[in-house]
Write a structure and sequence with these properties.
- It is a single chain.
- The chain is α+β, with helices and mostly antiparallel strands.
- The chain has five domains: 109 residues, GIY-YIG endonuclease (3-Layer(aba) Sandwich), CATH 3.40.1440; 141 residues, no CATH class; 112 residues, Nucleotidyltransferase, domain 5, CATH 3.30.420; 206 residues, Nucleotidyltransferase, domain 5; 48 residues, Orthogonal Bundle (DNA polymerase, domain 1), CATH 1.10.150.
- Strands 14, 15, 16, 17, 20, 21 and 22 form a seven-stranded mixed beta sheet that branches. Strands 5-11-10-9-12-13 form a six-stranded mixed beta sheet.
- Helix 7 runs antiparallel to helix 8.
- The longest helix has 35 residues.
- The chain is globular, with a radius of gyration of 33 Å.
C-alpha cells in the first residue's frame, strides 16, 4: 500500500517553534507501521531508500532534531525536498522491497556494491540437447542454471579453462542440428567432446554436464568418486583408451582441487562473511564452504559506507548480495549481529525455500573461520588502496581536483606533508613525506629529531621541523625553487655528543634521511639536493594552531610564499591561511582520498621513527644505570653486540674483548643487567 503524505492535512496554525526541516510538519501523519521510505531531491530523483520497523519514528529522527545524525546524513536531509512511503505487512517484506528499490533507483546516498553491474555469472543452458557454458552479467528467468556472482573476471575465466579440461563442455554458439564436417582445435586438445560432429551422444554429454554441476555445487568428492569408478570399469572392460582419457580428466580435476587449499572440516555447507572498513569504502569477503571445503572466495567493495553503523552496513550487504546470489546456504556466519536479524533470516529463508540461520560464532572452528575471512578482507582492502595509487589517471586526476578545490594556479607536482610524534614530549620526532604527481616518492622522505622543544608542545615542534627543513633548502646548492641540480649534494652535519648532559644526551643521533620501511638511515653524510627542493604544496597534520606555527616558521626561514594547508583529522577539515572558514571536501572526492593518503603516510613514517627512537632510548638508559660504563664503553658495547639482551648473554671473555672493558666493568654489568 502506498501512502501519499503530500496530501495529508496540515496542523492548525498557531504560535509554535519553527520545525527543523520543512518536511517535519508531515511526519506526525506518517503511519506507525513498518515500511519503506524514499527521499527525493528538487529534481524528483530518488536519492535515498530506507526501511523502518516504525516509519514515523524513523522519519522523526531525520526531520526532527538532527543532533544524532552524521555529516553524510545531514547532507542527505538538506537535499531532501520530498518523500514517499510504502507500507508493508512485515519487516521481512520491507527488507525485500528496500533491496529491490535500491537496485532499481541506485540512490546516491545508499550504500552500494561498487561496479555491481560488472559481476559475472556462469551460465549453463540446460534447455538444449548439448548445453553450453559461458559467462554472463545478468541472471534471467530462462530455465538455465546460474552460478555466482563472481567479482574476479580473470579468475573466473581461468577456472573455466581448468574445468573445461575436466568436463570437456562446449562454449561455442554453433547450431548443433546443422553439424560440421570437422571439429575445431578444442576437440583435438581434449577440451570439448565435439557434439558438433556427432562423436558423443546427448546421454554421454549430459553425464559430463551433471558432473560439472555437482562440481560447481561443491560436491567434488562425489565427482571424483564417479570418475574413479568409471575408470576402473573401463579398465576392467579392457577399454584402455577410454580409461586413459578418464585418468587424464581425474588428473585435471585434482589440479583444480589443489586451488582449494582451505578446508573447513565438519562445518557443512555455509557462507562465512566478514568485512574491513576504511570509510568511505568497505571491503566484504565471502567464503563459500561446500562439502567442508572453501570452494569460492569473493571480494565486494561497498561505497558510501561512512556514518553507517557496522550492523546496518552488514544488513545492507546481505540484502544486495543475496538478492543477486544464485544459492543461499543453510548457515551464514557473521562477525557481528546484523541489524534486524530476524527479518533478514526470514527473508533469506524464503529465498532458499528452507530455514536459514544467521550465526555469530564466539569460539571454536567457526570463529577461527570468520577471523580468517576478516583477515582476507583487510588484506584485500589494502591491496585495493595500493591499486588505486598505481592508477595514473586517478592519482594525477586527484591532484588536479585538489588544485581546483584550493584555487591553486596549477596542479602541484610535488606535495610535502609533515607530522609530529611524541609521548608527552619524550622521544619527539617529526616526519616529512613527499608525493610527486600523486605518487609517493620514498627516497625524498626525511626524518627529524626534535632538538629545542622538551615539553609536549606540538605547535613548537612543528615550527622547529618546518624551520629546519626550509633553512636546509635555502642553504642547499641546487635546491633553489623547483629547479633540480643534477649530481649536486648537501653535506649534513655529523651528530656530536655534547660535553655536558642535556635532556637528549642518552638518545641516538638524528636520522636525516629515511625510507618508508624505516630502513638504515644516514646519521651523517650526504643527501641529494633534489631531496630538499621546494614543494608546490605543503600540508601539515593539524588544525589552525599547527598551520600558524608552520607558516611563521617558513617566513622566518626565508622561504618563498608557498601554498600551505592544515588537515584536521577529526572532521577532515582543510584550513588555509587568511581563511576564517575551513574547507570540507566531499567524502567521495578523489582529492580528499589523496590528501588522506598523504597524511596517513606522514603519520606512519613519524610513528615508526618515534618507536625506534623510544626503543633505543630505553636500551641506552639500561646501560646508563651501570656504574663504570661511560659513553665510550657504552658505544663500544652497543657497536659490538647491538642490544642489551645480547650483552647480557655474552660470555665474560667476549665482554673483556671489547675495547675499554675491564673485569670490574664486566662484574658491574653482571650485577646490574
Amino acid at each position: 500500500m502506498t501512502v501519499d503524505c503530500a496530501a495529508a492535512a496540515r496542523p492548525q496554525a498557531g504560535p509554535a517553534e519553527p520545525p527543523e526541516h520543512p518536511l517535519a510538519v508531515r511526519v506526525p501523519f506518517v503511519p506507525r507501521r513498518s515500511g519503506v521510505y524514499l527521499f527525493k531531491d528538487r529534481a524528483g530523483q530518488v536519492i535515498y531508500v530506507g526501511k523502518a520497523a516504525v516509519l514515523r519514528s524513523r522519519l522523526t529522527s531525520y526531520f526532527g532534531h538532527q543532533g544524532g545524525l552524521g555529516p553524510r546524513q545531514r547532507q542527505l536531509v538538506a537535499r531532501t525536498t520530498d518523500f514517499e512511503l510504502a507500507v508493508t505487512a512485515s519487516e521481512k517484506e520491507a527488507l525485500l522491497l528496500e533491496a529491490s528499490l535500491i537496485k532499481e533507483h541506485r540512490p546516491r546516498y545508499n550504500i552500494a556494491l561498487r561496479d555491481d553491474k560488472s559481476y559475472l555469472y556462469l551460465k549453463i543452458t540446460l534447455g538444449e540437447p548439448y548445453p553450453r557454458i559461458y559467462t554472463v552479467r545478468q541472471v534471467r528467468d530462462d530455465g538455465a542454471r546460474y552460478f555466482g556472482p563472481y567479482t574476479d573476471a580473470k579468475g573466473l575465466r581461468a577456472t573455466m579453462a581448468h574445468l573445461q579440461r575436466v568436463f570437456q563442455f562446449r562454449t561455442c554458439d554453433i547450431d548443433m542440428e546443422k553439424g560440421l564436417d570437422r571439429p575445431c582445435l578444442l576437440y583435438h586438445i581434449k577440451r570439448c567432446l565435439a557434439p558438433c560432429i556427432g562423436v558423443t551422444t546427448p546421454e554421454e554429454y549430459g553425464q559430463a554436464l551433471d558432473e560439472l554441476v555437482l562440481f560447481l555445487d561443491g560436491k567434488q568428492d562425489d565427482v571424483m568418486r564417479q570418475l574413479r569408478t568409471a575408470m576402473a570399469a573401463a579398465a576392467q572392460e579392457l577399454a584402455f583408451e577410454r580409461a586413459a582419457a578418464i585418468r587424464d580428466r581425474l588428473s585435471a580435476a585434482e589440479r583444480v582441487l589443489e586451488r582449494q587449499r582451505i578446508t573447513a572440516p565438519g562445518r557443512g555447507d555455509l557462507d562465512a562473511i566478514a568485512f574491513a572498513l576504511d570509510a568511505p569504502d568497505a571491503c566484504v569477503q565471502v567464503f563459500q564452504v561446500r562439502g567442508d571445503k572453501v570452494v569460492s572466495r569473493e571480494n565486494f567493495v561497498l561505497q558510501r559506507a561512512e556514518d553507517t553503523a557496522e550492523a546496518a552496513l552488514l544488513t545492507h550487504f546481505l540484502q544486495q548480495y543475496y538478492l543477486r546470489a544464485t544459492t543461499v546456504p543453510p548457515v551464514i556466519l557473521l562477525p557481528l549481529q546484523c541489524a534486524d536479524p530476524d527479518a533478514v533470516a526470514a527473508w533469506l529463508s524464503d529465498r532458499r525455500g528452507r530455514r536459514v540461520r544467521l550465526e555469530v560464532p564466539q569460539r571454536g572452528g567457526k570463529r577461527q573461520l570468520v577471523a580468517l575471512v576478516a583477515e582476507n578482507a583487510a588484506a584485500a582492502l589494502e591491496e585495493l588502496k595500493v591499486k588505486w595509487l598505481a592508477d595514473e589517471r586517478r592519482t594525477w586526476g586527484a591532484v588536479r581536483e585538489l588544485a581546483a578545490a584550493l584555487d591553486l594556479p596549477e596542479p602541484p607536482r610535488r606535495i610535502e606533508c609533515y607530522d609530529i610524534s611524541n609521548i608527552q614530549g619524550a622521544a619527539a620526532v617529526g616526519s616529512m613525506v613527499v608525493f610527486e604527481q600523486g605518487r609517493p616518492r620514498p627516497d625524498a622522505y626525511r626524518r627529524f629529531r626534535i632538538k629545542t622543544v622538551h615539553q609536549p608542545d606540538d605547535f613548537a615542534m612543528m615550527a622547529e621541523v618546518i624551520g629546519r627543513r626550509f633553512r636546509r633548502a635555502a642553504t642547499s646548492p641546487g635546491a633553489t625553487g623547483n629547479e633540480r641540480s643534477e649530481g649536486a649534494t648537501v653535506t649534513l652535519e655529523a651528530p656530536r655528543l655534547p660535553a655536558s648532559p642535556t635532556p637528549h644526551d642518552n638518545e641516538p643521533p638524528e636520522f636525516a634521511i629515511g625510507t618508508p620501511e624505516d630502513g638504515p638511515a644516514a646519521e651523517a653524510g650526504q643527501a641529494t639536493a633534489e631531496g630538499w627542493e621546494l614543494p608546490e604544496l605543503v600540508i601539515v597534520d593539524g588544525g589552525k594552531g599547527q598551520l600558524s606555527a608552520a607558516l611563521a616558521a617558513m617566513r622566518a626561514a626565508g622561504a618563498p610564499a608557498l601554498p600551505i594547508i592544515g588537515l584536521a583529522k577529526e572532521q577532515e577539515e582543510i584550513f588555509r591561511p587568511d581563511q576564517a572558514e575551513s574547507l570540507v571536501l566531499p567524502r567521495t572526492s578523489q582529492a580528499l582520498y589523496l590528501i588522506q593518503r598523504i597524511r596517513d603516510e606522514a603519520h606512519r613514517f613519524a610513528i615508526t621513527y618515534h618507536r625506534s627512537v623510544r626503543r633505543r632510548r630505553t636500551i641506552v638508559s639500561a646501560l646508563d644505570r651501570v656504574p663504570g660504563i661511560g659513553p665510550k664503553r657504552k658505544r663500544a658495547l652497543l657497536r659490538q653486540f647491538g642490544s642489551v639482551p645480547r650483552i647480557r648473554e655474552a660470555s665474560d671473555a667476549d665482554l673483556l674483548a671489547v675495547s675499554g672493558m675491564t673485569k670490574r666493568a664486566v662484574a658491574a654489568l653482571r650485577e646490574h643487567l
